[in-house]
């Protein structure tokens, strides 16, 4: 099937070539309109702002680049109306007159406005693959974010589960995938990769806890393997988070809640209006910090504590150059109760919130430094270059089988991961005209190096008793892509792209040279997408693409027979629409399918890679956002997926833990001052926990509520989770384990981490 997609991609390139033929060329004595779009409050440029120009020859459009610049060329002389629209900003219209051969320059400032769905546009002229842009921007305004754990669920259709006292990365479910901790969903923040390759606990491990939620400004969501900018792990999709470029005001916030929960946050603006650091143009800089402590709801206190610190500078150095610099540090430590077997609770050995081994837990830390230099070049091109470095440490004590392997001292293990990450990404983007048609070309080049010390050891009550496996991983990814977006007509847009990834895997085992080695692998991933603006409020799309997720380096170097592929292929395609059937109703719907060559999971608890074989999924996503009144909003996500193992006997071909139905939604009262509130629900269905569906992970339906009251410089808030105090399970697995006194062969049944009971916390914020 991948040859079929290659043919489609080549057809897309052929269409691009045909559109550049002389038949579409125009005479040279035409006018050009240039300009810059900025935020009226901060003065920072607004990339991706959509522009429509209506005049004698009809309507044409474009979008601002990374520096907030735009260009519209090939215009006949006459009077025009320019409309600038950005999500979260007021629409700006301006009438202008162009003379023959004239180049006119405009500078527009857009004001931030209260959310109004009547003004939301469905098309994204700069990045058509971001078809969920309108939905995610609405969600950022409406959906409450109370902790780093609430960030990933901002992705429509994504559900999480936690199973280590809040210290580990969450388990992710999306589009019929149990993504584990990130194997099939690519996550980044400000261009920094979050997923960890060849991680001690699981391939693609994505820990977002180093992000302070109050600093997050935007989220871009890309479902499926259709966007060339993403390579490894972007099979089910990708989420790009970005932090604020500036603060409207400084903030101090304190939260207190049940289970000894305490949290403090501070955001400090370092460059008030009129102050400068590196240039005399628009600049901003701020510091942010967060401290969290909780004992959680388990019988054994969790002693969970986390500290986050962030500093960020964003500045316009000249008319053609901007610079962003960011540094952050995160550290966390916790005790955990682990997953419990159903029989231990049923037989009253422990309570529902008890533990078999209460010495589980761990610590982790991450330090980041990154800089982004964006430069405007001749011929309406922009060069964006980013360099980054991360130091990461991870130390986890777990016990999933209890006394199965070691009946006397227990089966506790210790996983450690200490790594340095070095990376560079560069993109050259150019907007041009092919005759009368707008063409946006992007060439990307990047590399990432992970230098990692890994170990899996036996332990008893956090005292190491022996080494199972330890060694050093060196893994490098070199990648390049070419992405072309052409407006074939005023309504039809073609996006064709080609990405290539080259990997170098090296592993040196500290004990066994037979498991050491080196390997190289490459993968080419074509993409082809079509977008049709049926009306200004209806966009149709057809998308297709190939992607992959990488295997753990330790498995790649010893797998010389290629029985476990290093870069298993993913083939995806979908058809859908973003539309507004009513002025205040935004809907995104997609019917999709995704085929995986091999569904691989690195089992860090055992030190091996597990293969499920080929899998096939198809499903439907529906997201609705409706404005009932000026201040009242409703939202709902409905996500269905059907997935099966390919080649397995019927009845034994279920994909363990893959959800078939999830839904979240709620009602939100949103006001700039005074009272705001939100009542929300979330549901994950019961699903098979093994291939034969003889054990099932239990579903749940929960209600949460958030309220705040803003008066003057103060904001009072309250949050309630699990309003009905439902007994529910977070992470759930069909696990073979042994308790004291049980047969040596153990018992296989459902093990789970109990979900949060009724929980309430209050907060006080001061703006200054």
Characteristics:
768 residues; four-stranded antiparallel beta sheet; 45 strands; mainly beta
The number of helices is 4
| Helix amount | under 10%
State Rg: 26 Å
Structural class: mainly beta
**Residue windows where pLDDT falls under 50 for at least 5 positions:** 13-27
Give the tally of β-strands. Answer: 45
Based on Cα principal axes, name the global outline.
globular
Euclidean distance between termini CA atoms:
59 Å
Largest sheet, in brief, is:
22 strands, antiparallel, barrel
Q: Mean pLDDT, as a whole number?
A: 91
β-sheet strand percentage: over 45%
Protein name: TonB-dependent receptor
InterPro entries: Beta-barrel_TonB, Beta-barrel_TonB_sf, CarboxyPept-like_regulatory, Plug_dom, Plug_dom_sf, TonB-dep_rcpt-like
Family: Belongs to the TonB-dependent receptor family.
Subcellular location: Cell outer membrane
Task: Explain what this protein looks like in three dimensions.
It is found in: Cell outer membrane. Residues 330-723 form the TonB-dependent receptor-like beta-barrel domain. Helix content is 5%, strand content 56%. It is mainly beta. The protein has a 22-stranded antiparallel barrel. It has a 4-stranded antiparallel β-sheet with strand order 3-2-5-6, with no helix packed on it. The longest helix has 18 residues, at 2-19. The chain is globular, with a radius of gyration of 26 Å.
């Amino acid at each position: 099937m991948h040859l079929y997609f290659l043919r489609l991609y080549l057809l897309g390139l052929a269409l691009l070539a045909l559109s550049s033929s002389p038949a579409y060329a125009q005479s040279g004595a035409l006018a050009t309109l240039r300009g810059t779009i900025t935020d009226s409050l901060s003065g920072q440029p607004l990339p991706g702002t959509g522009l429509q120009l209506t005049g004698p020859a009809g309507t044409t459009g474009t979008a601002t680049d990374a520096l907030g610049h735009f260009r519209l060329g090939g215009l006949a002389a006459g009077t025009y109306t320019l409309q600038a629209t950005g999500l979260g900003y007021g629409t700006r219209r301006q009438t202008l007159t162009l003379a023959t051969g004239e180049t006119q320059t405009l500078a527009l400032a857009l004001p931030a406005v209260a959310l109004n769905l009547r003004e939301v546009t469905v098309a994204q002229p700069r990045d058509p693959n971001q078809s969920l842009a309108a939905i995610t921007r609405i969600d950022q305004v409406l959906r409450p974010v109370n902790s780093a754990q609430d960030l990933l669920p901002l992705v429509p259709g994504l559900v999480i589960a936690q199973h280590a006292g809040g210290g580990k990365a969450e388990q992710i479910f999306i589009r019929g995938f149990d993504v584990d901790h990130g194997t099939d969903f690519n996550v980044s923040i400000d261009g920094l990769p979050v997923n960890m390759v060849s991680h001690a606990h699981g391939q693609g491990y994505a820990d977002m806890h180093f992000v302070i939620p109050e600093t997050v400004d935007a989220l871009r969501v890309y479902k499926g393997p259709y966007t060339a900018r993403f390579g490894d792990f972007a099979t089910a999709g990708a989420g790009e988070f970005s932090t604020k470029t500036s603060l409207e005001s400084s903030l101090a916030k304190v939260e207190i809640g049940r289970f000894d929960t305490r949290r403090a946050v501070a955001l400090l603006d370092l460059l008030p209006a009129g102050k400068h650091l590196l240039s005399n143009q628009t600049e901003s800089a701020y510091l942010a910090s967060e401290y969290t402590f909780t004992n959680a709801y388990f019988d054994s206190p969790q002693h969970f504590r986390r500290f986050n610190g962030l500093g960020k500078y964003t500045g316009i150095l000249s008319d053609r150059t901007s610079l962003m610099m960011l540094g952050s540090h995160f550290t966390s430590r916790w005790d955990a109760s682990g997953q419990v077997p159903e029989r231990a609770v049923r037989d009253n050995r422990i309570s529902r919130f008890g533990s078999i081994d209460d010495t589980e837990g761990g610590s982790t830390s991450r330090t980041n430094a990154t800089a982004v230099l964006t430069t405007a070049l001749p011929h309406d091109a922009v060069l964006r270059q980013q360099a980054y470095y991360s130091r990461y440490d991870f130390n986890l004590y777990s016990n999933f089988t209890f006394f199965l392997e070691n009946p006397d001292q227990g089966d506790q293990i210790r996983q450690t991961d200490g790594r340095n990450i070095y990376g560079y990404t560069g993109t050259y983007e150019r907007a041009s005209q092919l005759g009368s048609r707008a063409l946006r070309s992007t060439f990307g080049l990047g590399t990432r190096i992970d230098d990692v010390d890994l170990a899996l050891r036996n332990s008893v009550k956090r005292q190491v008793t022996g080494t199972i496996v330890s060694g050093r991983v060196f893994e490098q990814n070199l990648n390049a892509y070419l992405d072309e977006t052409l407006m074939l007509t005023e309504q039809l847009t073609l996006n064709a792209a080609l990405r290539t990834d080259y990997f170098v895997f090296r592993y040196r085992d500290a004990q066994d040279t037979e498991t050491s080695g080196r390997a190289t692998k490459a993968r080419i991933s074509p993409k082809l997408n079509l977008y049709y603006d049926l009306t200004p409020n209806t966009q149709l799309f057809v998308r297709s693409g190939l992607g992959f997720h990488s295997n753990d380096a330790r498995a790649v170097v010893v797998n010389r027979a290629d029985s476990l592929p290093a870069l298993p292929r993913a083939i995806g395609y979908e058809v859908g629409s973003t539309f507004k059937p009513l002025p205040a109703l935004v809907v995104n719907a997609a019917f999709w399918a995704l085929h995986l060559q091999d569904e691989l999971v690195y089992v860090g608890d055992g030190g091996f890679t597990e293969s499920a074989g080929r899998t096939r999924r198809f499903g439907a996503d529906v997201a609705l956002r409706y404005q009932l009144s000026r201040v009242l909003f409703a939202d709902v996500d409905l996500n269905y997926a059907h997935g099966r193992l390919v080649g397995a006997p019927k009845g034994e071909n279920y994909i363990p833990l893959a959800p078939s139905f999830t839904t979240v939604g709620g009602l939100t009262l949103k006001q700039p001052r005074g009272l705001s509130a939100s009542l929300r629900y979330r549901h994950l269905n019961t699903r098979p926990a093994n291939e034969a569906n003889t054990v099932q992970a239990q579903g749940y339906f929960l209600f949460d509520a958030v309220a705040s009251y803003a008066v003057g410089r103060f904001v009072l808030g309250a949050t309630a989770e699990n309003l009905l105090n439902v007994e529910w399970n977070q992470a759930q697995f069909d696990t073979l384990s042994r308790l004291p006194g049980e047969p040596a062969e153990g018992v296989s049944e459902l093990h789970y981490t109990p979900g949060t009971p009724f929980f309430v916390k209050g907060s006080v914020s001061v703006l200054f």
